[in-house]
Specification:
This is Hsp70 family protein. Among the domains are: 55 residues, no CATH class; 92 residues, Nucleotidyltransferase, domain 5; 110 residues, no CATH class. Helix content is 48%, strand content 19%. The protein is built from 15 helices and 16 strands. Strand 8, helix 6 and strand 9 form a beta-alpha-beta unit. It is globular and about 75 Å long.
Amino acid sequence: MKLGIDFGTSNSAAAAHIDGKVVPVHFGDALQVRTTVYFPEVMRDPNDFELSPALEQQLEALVESGRRDARSAGTDRSPAQLRADALRVVRRQWMEERIREPQSSTTLLQNAVYGDDALEAYFEENEGNLVQSPKSMLGYNLHPRARQTITGIATHILEHIRLTASRQLGQNVRSALLGRPVQFRSSIGEAGNDQALEILRSAALAAGFDEVDFLEEPAAAAMHYHAVSDQRHEAVIVDVGGGTTDIAHASVGGDTPPRIHRAWGIARGGTDIDLALSLAAYMPLFGRGITRVPTHHYVEAAMVQDTPRQREFRQHNYDAVDAPYGPRLQALQDTGNTARLYRAVEQCKIALSSTDSHASALSFIEAGLSVETDAPHLGNAAGGYLGELEALLAQVRQDIGHEPAAVFLTGGMSRAGYIQRAAAAAFPNATLVHGDPSFGVVQGLALAATAAP
Protein backbone atom coordinates (compact mmCIF):
# COMPACT_ATOMS: atom_id res chain seq x y z
CA MET A 1 0.00 0.00 0.00
CA LYS A 2 1.28 3.43 -0.98
CA LEU A 3 0.14 6.36 1.15
CA GLY A 4 -0.52 9.75 -0.40
CA ILE A 5 0.72 12.56 1.86
CA ASP A 6 -0.01 16.25 1.44
CA PHE A 7 2.73 17.73 3.67
CA GLY A 8 1.43 21.28 3.81
CA THR A 9 2.70 24.59 5.12
CA SER A 10 -0.30 25.07 7.42
CA ASN A 11 -1.96 21.64 7.50
CA SER A 12 -1.09 18.11 6.41
CA ALA A 13 -3.29 15.21 5.33
CA ALA A 14 -2.92 11.61 4.17
CA ALA A 15 -5.04 9.08 2.29
CA ALA A 16 -4.82 5.69 0.61
CA HIS A 17 -6.71 4.22 -2.36
CA ILE A 18 -8.21 0.92 -1.18
CA ASP A 19 -10.71 -1.28 -3.06
CA GLY A 20 -11.60 1.49 -5.48
CA LYS A 21 -12.15 4.12 -2.76
CA VAL A 22 -10.01 6.92 -1.34
CA VAL A 23 -9.73 6.31 2.40
CA PRO A 24 -8.61 9.39 4.36
CA VAL A 25 -6.47 9.07 7.46
CA HIS A 26 -8.10 10.48 10.60
CA PHE A 27 -6.08 12.48 13.11
CA GLY A 28 -8.36 12.23 16.10
CA ASP A 29 -11.68 13.58 14.89
CA ALA A 30 -10.10 15.56 12.03
CA LEU A 31 -9.05 14.63 8.51
CA GLN A 32 -5.97 16.81 8.60
CA VAL A 33 -3.37 17.81 11.16
CA ARG A 34 -1.86 21.24 11.63
CA THR A 35 1.78 21.09 10.53
CA THR A 36 2.95 22.13 13.97
CA VAL A 37 4.98 20.34 16.62
CA TYR A 38 5.51 21.16 20.30
CA PHE A 39 8.48 19.96 22.31
CA PRO A 40 7.58 19.85 26.04
CA GLU A 41 11.19 19.77 27.26
CA VAL A 42 12.75 23.18 27.59
CA MET A 43 15.72 23.93 25.37
CA ARG A 44 18.29 26.36 26.68
CA ASP A 45 16.94 29.87 26.88
CA PRO A 46 19.01 32.77 25.49
CA ASN A 47 18.82 34.33 28.95
CA ASP A 48 20.91 31.39 30.26
CA PHE A 49 23.75 32.44 27.98
CA GLU A 50 27.04 33.32 29.67
CA LEU A 51 30.40 34.06 28.09
CA SER A 52 32.92 31.35 28.86
CA PRO A 53 36.61 32.01 28.16
CA ALA A 54 36.30 30.13 24.86
CA LEU A 55 33.20 32.11 23.85
CA GLU A 56 34.91 35.35 24.88
CA GLN A 57 37.74 34.46 22.51
CA GLN A 58 35.25 33.87 19.69
CA LEU A 59 33.60 37.18 20.48
CA GLU A 60 36.85 39.14 20.31
CA ALA A 61 37.73 37.48 17.00
CA LEU A 62 34.36 38.51 15.54
CA VAL A 63 34.74 42.07 16.83
CA GLU A 64 38.16 42.35 15.21
CA SER A 65 36.81 40.88 11.95
CA GLY A 66 33.92 43.36 12.01
CA ARG A 67 36.34 46.23 12.64
CA ARG A 68 38.41 45.22 9.59
CA ASP A 69 35.32 44.87 7.41
CA ALA A 70 34.03 48.29 8.48
CA ARG A 71 37.42 49.85 7.80
CA SER A 72 37.55 48.28 4.32
CA ALA A 73 34.04 49.46 3.54
CA GLY A 74 34.80 52.97 4.79
CA THR A 75 31.99 52.87 7.37
CA ASP A 76 32.10 54.17 10.91
CA ARG A 77 30.90 51.69 13.53
CA SER A 78 31.37 52.18 17.24
CA PRO A 79 33.02 49.52 19.42
CA ALA A 80 29.65 49.05 21.16
CA GLN A 81 27.90 48.32 17.86
CA LEU A 82 30.61 45.89 16.78
CA ARG A 83 30.46 44.06 20.10
CA ALA A 84 26.64 43.90 20.09
CA ASP A 85 26.60 42.36 16.60
CA ALA A 86 29.33 39.89 17.50
CA LEU A 87 27.55 38.94 20.73
CA ARG A 88 24.36 38.20 18.77
CA VAL A 89 26.27 35.83 16.49
CA VAL A 90 27.99 34.04 19.38
CA ARG A 91 24.71 33.68 21.27
CA ARG A 92 22.96 32.29 18.18
CA GLN A 93 25.73 29.72 17.65
CA TRP A 94 25.52 28.79 21.34
CA MET A 95 21.79 28.18 20.99
CA GLU A 96 22.28 26.01 17.92
CA GLU A 97 24.82 23.92 19.82
CA ARG A 98 22.30 23.41 22.60
CA ILE A 99 19.75 22.16 20.05
CA ARG A 100 22.27 19.51 19.01
CA GLU A 101 22.78 18.18 22.53
CA PRO A 102 21.17 14.77 23.15
CA GLN A 103 18.87 16.03 25.88
CA SER A 104 17.42 18.67 23.56
CA SER A 105 17.24 16.75 20.29
CA THR A 106 16.58 13.04 20.93
CA THR A 107 14.45 13.27 24.07
CA LEU A 108 12.80 16.44 22.82
CA LEU A 109 11.61 14.86 19.58
CA GLN A 110 10.46 11.63 21.22
CA ASN A 111 8.02 13.53 23.46
CA ALA A 112 6.64 15.81 20.74
CA VAL A 113 2.96 16.78 20.49
CA TYR A 114 1.44 17.45 17.07
CA GLY A 115 -1.23 19.54 15.35
CA ASP A 116 -3.75 21.70 17.20
CA ASP A 117 -2.90 19.72 20.34
CA ALA A 118 0.61 21.16 20.01
CA LEU A 119 -0.71 24.71 20.21
CA GLU A 120 -2.94 23.95 23.18
CA ALA A 121 -0.17 22.12 25.03
CA TYR A 122 2.23 24.98 24.39
CA PHE A 123 -0.25 27.55 25.70
CA GLU A 124 -1.09 25.41 28.74
CA GLU A 125 2.49 24.54 29.71
CA ASN A 126 3.84 28.03 28.94
CA GLU A 127 7.28 26.56 28.30
CA GLY A 128 9.02 24.30 25.82
CA ASN A 129 9.32 25.01 22.11
CA LEU A 130 6.75 25.30 19.33
CA VAL A 131 7.69 24.88 15.65
CA GLN A 132 5.09 25.89 13.07
CA SER A 133 5.19 25.25 9.31
CA PRO A 134 8.65 23.64 8.99
CA LYS A 135 7.91 23.22 5.25
CA SER A 136 8.34 26.97 4.79
CA MET A 137 12.04 26.69 5.79
CA LEU A 138 13.08 23.69 3.66
CA GLY A 139 14.38 25.72 0.73
CA TYR A 140 16.34 28.31 2.70
CA ASN A 141 20.08 28.59 3.16
CA LEU A 142 20.45 26.53 6.34
CA HIS A 143 23.42 26.09 8.63
CA PRO A 144 24.23 22.34 8.77
CA ARG A 145 22.99 22.15 12.37
CA ALA A 146 19.80 24.01 11.50
CA ARG A 147 19.26 21.70 8.53
CA GLN A 148 19.64 18.66 10.77
CA THR A 149 17.14 20.11 13.23
CA ILE A 150 14.58 20.89 10.49
CA THR A 151 15.08 17.39 9.07
CA GLY A 152 14.45 15.93 12.52
CA ILE A 153 11.24 17.92 12.92
CA ALA A 154 9.97 16.87 9.47
CA THR A 155 10.92 13.26 10.30
CA HIS A 156 8.79 13.18 13.41
CA ILE A 157 5.80 14.80 11.70
CA LEU A 158 6.01 12.25 8.87
CA GLU A 159 6.50 9.44 11.39
CA HIS A 160 3.39 10.61 13.23
CA ILE A 161 1.47 10.49 9.93
CA ARG A 162 2.86 7.04 9.03
CA LEU A 163 2.09 5.47 12.40
CA THR A 164 -1.39 7.01 12.51
CA ALA A 165 -2.12 5.64 9.03
CA SER A 166 -0.70 2.22 9.90
CA ARG A 167 -2.92 1.92 12.96
CA GLN A 168 -6.04 3.02 11.09
CA LEU A 169 -5.44 0.95 7.96
CA GLY A 170 -4.37 -2.17 9.84
CA GLN A 171 -1.00 -2.64 8.14
CA ASN A 172 2.50 -1.27 8.38
CA VAL A 173 2.64 1.47 5.75
CA ARG A 174 6.12 1.68 4.22
CA SER A 175 5.59 3.47 0.89
CA ALA A 176 4.61 7.09 0.29
CA LEU A 177 3.87 9.55 -2.49
CA LEU A 178 4.46 13.08 -1.19
CA GLY A 179 3.04 16.17 -2.76
CA ARG A 180 5.47 18.98 -3.54
CA PRO A 181 4.96 22.54 -4.77
CA VAL A 182 6.22 23.59 -8.18
CA GLN A 183 8.44 26.12 -6.38
CA PHE A 184 9.39 25.78 -2.72
CA ARG A 185 9.96 28.92 -0.70
CA SER A 186 13.67 29.52 -1.13
CA SER A 187 16.47 31.98 -0.50
CA ILE A 188 18.90 30.14 -2.80
CA GLY A 189 16.97 29.94 -6.06
CA GLU A 190 16.53 26.62 -7.84
CA ALA A 191 18.97 24.99 -5.43
CA GLY A 192 16.29 25.48 -2.77
CA ASN A 193 13.97 23.06 -4.59
CA ASP A 194 16.68 20.40 -4.65
CA GLN A 195 17.52 20.94 -1.00
CA ALA A 196 13.86 20.81 0.07
CA LEU A 197 13.34 17.51 -1.74
CA GLU A 198 16.53 16.09 -0.22
CA ILE A 199 15.37 17.05 3.28
CA LEU A 200 11.90 15.60 2.74
CA ARG A 201 13.30 12.39 1.28
CA SER A 202 15.75 11.99 4.17
CA ALA A 203 13.00 12.75 6.68
CA ALA A 204 10.57 10.26 5.10
CA LEU A 205 13.17 7.48 5.04
CA ALA A 206 14.07 8.20 8.66
CA ALA A 207 10.35 8.15 9.50
CA GLY A 208 10.15 4.51 8.38
CA PHE A 209 9.16 4.76 4.72
CA ASP A 210 11.19 2.42 2.51
CA GLU A 211 9.98 3.97 -0.74
CA VAL A 212 9.42 7.70 -1.29
CA ASP A 213 8.27 9.45 -4.47
CA PHE A 214 7.10 13.00 -5.19
CA LEU A 215 4.36 14.49 -7.35
CA GLU A 216 3.75 18.19 -7.99
CA GLU A 217 0.68 19.29 -6.08
CA PRO A 218 -1.29 20.74 -9.02
CA ALA A 219 -0.73 17.45 -10.89
CA ALA A 220 -2.17 15.62 -7.87
CA ALA A 221 -5.17 17.97 -7.85
CA ALA A 222 -5.62 17.24 -11.56
CA MET A 223 -5.78 13.52 -10.73
CA HIS A 224 -8.60 14.22 -8.29
CA TYR A 225 -10.50 16.37 -10.81
CA HIS A 226 -9.97 13.73 -13.51
CA ALA A 227 -11.57 11.05 -11.31
CA VAL A 228 -14.84 13.03 -11.06
CA SER A 229 -14.95 14.21 -14.72
CA ASP A 230 -16.91 12.12 -17.22
CA GLN A 231 -16.06 14.04 -20.38
CA ARG A 232 -12.58 14.74 -21.69
CA HIS A 233 -11.70 18.45 -21.54
CA GLU A 234 -8.89 20.92 -20.89
CA ALA A 235 -8.61 22.50 -17.49
CA VAL A 236 -6.42 24.88 -15.55
CA ILE A 237 -5.84 23.53 -12.06
CA VAL A 238 -5.26 26.26 -9.44
CA ASP A 239 -4.00 25.11 -6.02
CA VAL A 240 -3.66 27.95 -3.50
CA GLY A 241 -2.18 26.85 -0.18
CA GLY A 242 -0.64 28.40 2.87
CA GLY A 243 2.88 28.79 1.51
CA THR A 244 2.73 28.26 -2.25
CA THR A 245 0.47 28.76 -5.26
CA ASP A 246 0.63 26.14 -8.01
CA ILE A 247 -1.09 25.95 -11.40
CA ALA A 248 -1.22 23.18 -13.99
CA HIS A 249 -2.65 22.97 -17.50
CA ALA A 250 -4.09 19.51 -17.98
CA SER A 251 -6.37 17.33 -20.08
CA VAL A 252 -8.70 15.41 -17.77
CA GLY A 253 -11.81 13.27 -17.80
CA GLY A 254 -13.05 10.24 -19.69
CA ASP A 255 -11.27 6.90 -19.98
CA THR A 256 -7.90 8.31 -21.03
CA PRO A 257 -5.42 8.94 -18.19
CA PRO A 258 -4.98 12.63 -17.31
CA ARG A 259 -2.20 14.47 -19.05
CA ILE A 260 -0.29 17.36 -17.49
CA HIS A 261 0.90 19.73 -20.21
CA ARG A 262 2.73 22.25 -18.06
CA ALA A 263 2.97 23.59 -14.51
CA TRP A 264 3.69 27.00 -12.99
CA GLY A 265 4.19 28.11 -9.40
CA ILE A 266 5.13 30.92 -7.03
CA ALA A 267 6.34 30.64 -3.45
CA ARG A 268 3.49 32.77 -2.08
CA GLY A 269 0.24 31.87 -0.37
CA GLY A 270 -2.02 32.40 2.60
CA THR A 271 0.78 32.96 5.12
CA ASP A 272 1.85 36.04 3.13
CA ILE A 273 -1.64 37.47 3.62
CA ASP A 274 -1.43 36.59 7.32
CA LEU A 275 1.83 38.55 7.61
CA ALA A 276 0.45 41.59 5.78
CA LEU A 277 -2.75 41.56 7.86
CA SER A 278 -0.78 41.27 11.09
CA LEU A 279 1.50 44.19 10.21
CA ALA A 280 -1.32 46.44 8.99
CA ALA A 281 -4.12 45.74 11.46
CA TYR A 282 -2.50 44.32 14.62
CA MET A 283 1.02 45.66 14.95
CA PRO A 284 -0.04 49.34 15.22
CA LEU A 285 -1.32 48.34 18.69
CA PHE A 286 2.33 47.58 19.47
CA GLY A 287 3.59 50.88 18.06
CA ARG A 288 4.31 50.04 14.42
CA GLY A 289 4.39 53.34 12.53
CA ILE A 290 4.09 55.27 15.81
CA THR A 291 7.27 54.56 17.77
CA ARG A 292 10.90 54.47 16.63
CA VAL A 293 10.99 50.68 16.94
CA PRO A 294 12.36 49.38 13.60
CA THR A 295 9.83 47.76 11.27
CA HIS A 296 11.80 44.54 11.12
CA HIS A 297 11.08 43.93 14.82
CA TYR A 298 7.38 43.63 13.98
CA VAL A 299 8.14 41.33 11.05
CA GLU A 300 10.19 39.12 13.38
CA ALA A 301 7.29 38.97 15.83
CA ALA A 302 4.73 38.15 13.12
CA MET A 303 6.73 35.41 11.36
CA VAL A 304 6.12 32.54 13.76
CA GLN A 305 7.28 30.03 11.13
CA ASP A 306 10.81 31.48 11.24
CA THR A 307 12.42 30.26 14.46
CA PRO A 308 15.61 32.38 14.16
CA ARG A 309 13.55 35.56 13.66
CA GLN A 310 11.37 34.67 16.65
CA ARG A 311 14.53 34.23 18.70
CA GLU A 312 15.83 37.61 17.55
CA PHE A 313 12.55 39.29 18.50
CA ARG A 314 12.69 37.88 22.03
CA GLN A 315 16.17 39.35 22.52
CA HIS A 316 15.21 42.99 21.85
CA ASN A 317 14.97 45.41 24.77
CA TYR A 318 11.89 47.67 24.89
CA ASP A 319 12.45 49.29 28.28
CA ALA A 320 12.87 52.72 26.67
CA VAL A 321 9.74 52.50 24.50
CA ASP A 322 6.92 54.67 25.84
CA ALA A 323 3.73 53.12 27.22
CA PRO A 324 1.53 51.52 26.16
CA TYR A 325 3.70 50.22 23.32
CA GLY A 326 6.80 49.20 25.27
CA PRO A 327 4.87 47.09 27.83
CA ARG A 328 2.83 45.53 25.01
CA LEU A 329 5.96 44.55 23.09
CA GLN A 330 7.43 43.09 26.26
CA ALA A 331 4.23 41.10 26.78
CA LEU A 332 4.43 39.89 23.17
CA GLN A 333 7.91 38.55 23.97
CA ASP A 334 6.49 36.27 26.68
CA THR A 335 6.41 32.56 25.87
CA GLY A 336 3.63 31.64 23.47
CA ASN A 337 2.29 35.12 22.83
CA THR A 338 3.53 35.51 19.25
CA ALA A 339 1.83 32.16 18.49
CA ARG A 340 -1.37 33.39 20.16
CA LEU A 341 -1.27 36.57 18.11
CA TYR A 342 -0.67 34.62 14.89
CA ARG A 343 -3.64 32.37 15.63
CA ALA A 344 -5.81 35.46 16.17
CA VAL A 345 -4.66 36.88 12.81
CA GLU A 346 -5.31 33.57 11.06
CA GLN A 347 -8.80 33.33 12.55
CA CYS A 348 -9.46 36.93 11.52
CA LYS A 349 -8.45 36.21 7.91
CA ILE A 350 -10.76 33.21 7.78
CA ALA A 351 -13.65 35.13 9.36
CA LEU A 352 -13.32 38.13 7.03
CA SER A 353 -13.58 35.84 4.02
CA SER A 354 -17.28 35.43 4.86
CA THR A 355 -18.19 38.34 7.19
CA ASP A 356 -17.80 42.13 7.05
CA SER A 357 -15.98 42.62 10.36
CA HIS A 358 -14.18 40.70 13.07
CA ALA A 359 -13.02 41.50 16.62
CA SER A 360 -9.94 39.86 18.14
CA ALA A 361 -9.49 39.89 21.91
CA LEU A 362 -5.84 40.33 22.88
CA SER A 363 -6.23 40.04 26.64
CA PHE A 364 -3.10 37.85 26.77
CA ILE A 365 -1.21 41.07 25.99
CA GLU A 366 -3.17 43.57 28.06
CA ALA A 367 -6.49 43.39 29.90
CA GLY A 368 -9.29 44.67 27.66
CA LEU A 369 -7.08 45.06 24.59
CA SER A 370 -8.77 44.16 21.30
CA VAL A 371 -8.62 45.02 17.62
CA GLU A 372 -11.52 45.45 15.21
CA THR A 373 -10.83 44.64 11.57
CA ASP A 374 -13.07 44.72 8.51
CA ALA A 375 -13.18 43.39 4.96
CA PRO A 376 -11.29 46.39 3.49
CA HIS A 377 -8.43 45.62 5.92
CA LEU A 378 -8.26 42.10 4.52
CA GLY A 379 -8.55 43.38 0.95
CA ASN A 380 -5.60 45.72 1.48
CA ALA A 381 -3.57 42.98 3.17
CA ALA A 382 -4.29 40.55 0.34
CA GLY A 383 -3.49 43.15 -2.33
CA GLY A 384 0.20 42.29 -2.67
CA TYR A 385 -0.46 38.58 -3.00
CA LEU A 386 -3.40 39.10 -5.36
CA GLY A 387 -1.18 41.15 -7.65
CA GLU A 388 1.25 38.24 -7.90
CA LEU A 389 -1.59 35.73 -8.40
CA GLU A 390 -3.14 37.81 -11.17
CA ALA A 391 0.24 38.13 -12.91
CA LEU A 392 0.74 34.37 -12.69
CA LEU A 393 -2.74 33.67 -14.08
CA ALA A 394 -2.08 36.12 -16.92
CA GLN A 395 1.20 34.31 -17.69
CA VAL A 396 -0.62 30.97 -17.73
CA ARG A 397 -3.25 32.31 -20.14
CA GLN A 398 -0.55 33.75 -22.40
CA ASP A 399 1.46 30.52 -22.40
CA ILE A 400 -1.58 28.36 -23.16
CA GLY A 401 -2.77 30.70 -25.90
CA HIS A 402 -6.46 29.99 -25.40
CA GLU A 403 -9.05 29.52 -22.66
CA PRO A 404 -9.58 26.08 -21.15
CA ALA A 405 -13.03 24.61 -20.70
CA ALA A 406 -12.73 24.76 -16.90
CA VAL A 407 -10.75 26.24 -14.03
CA PHE A 408 -10.54 23.86 -11.07
CA LEU A 409 -9.86 25.53 -7.70
CA THR A 410 -8.46 23.71 -4.69
CA GLY A 411 -6.26 24.41 -1.65
CA GLY A 412 -7.23 25.99 1.66
CA MET A 413 -7.11 29.55 0.34
CA SER A 414 -9.49 28.71 -2.53
CA ARG A 415 -12.36 29.27 -0.08
CA ALA A 416 -11.71 33.03 -0.21
CA GLY A 417 -13.98 34.98 -2.53
CA TYR A 418 -11.16 37.23 -3.73
CA ILE A 419 -9.20 34.16 -4.91
CA GLN A 420 -12.24 32.84 -6.75
CA ARG A 421 -12.88 36.21 -8.39
CA ALA A 422 -9.27 36.48 -9.55
CA ALA A 423 -9.41 33.04 -11.18
CA ALA A 424 -12.76 33.78 -12.84
CA ALA A 425 -11.51 37.13 -14.18
CA ALA A 426 -8.42 35.51 -15.72
CA PHE A 427 -10.53 32.97 -17.65
CA PRO A 428 -13.98 34.58 -18.01
CA ASN A 429 -15.34 32.03 -20.47
CA ALA A 430 -14.24 28.95 -18.52
CA THR A 431 -16.45 27.10 -16.06
CA LEU A 432 -15.24 27.67 -12.49
CA VAL A 433 -15.21 24.35 -10.62
CA HIS A 434 -14.79 24.33 -6.84
CA GLY A 435 -12.83 21.35 -5.62
CA ASP A 436 -12.43 20.22 -2.04
CA PRO A 437 -10.27 23.02 -0.52
CA SER A 438 -8.59 20.84 2.08
CA PHE A 439 -8.47 17.41 0.47
CA GLY A 440 -8.31 17.84 -3.30
CA VAL A 441 -4.54 17.38 -3.42
CA VAL A 442 -4.35 14.44 -0.99
CA GLN A 443 -7.14 12.57 -2.80
CA GLY A 444 -5.24 13.01 -6.03
CA LEU A 445 -2.05 11.78 -4.38
CA ALA A 446 -3.84 8.65 -3.15
CA LEU A 447 -5.15 7.98 -6.67
CA ALA A 448 -1.76 8.64 -8.25
CA ALA A 449 -0.04 6.39 -5.71
CA THR A 450 -2.22 3.48 -6.90
CA ALA A 451 -1.71 4.31 -10.56
CA ALA A 452 2.08 4.53 -10.25
CA PRO A 453 3.97 1.48 -11.54
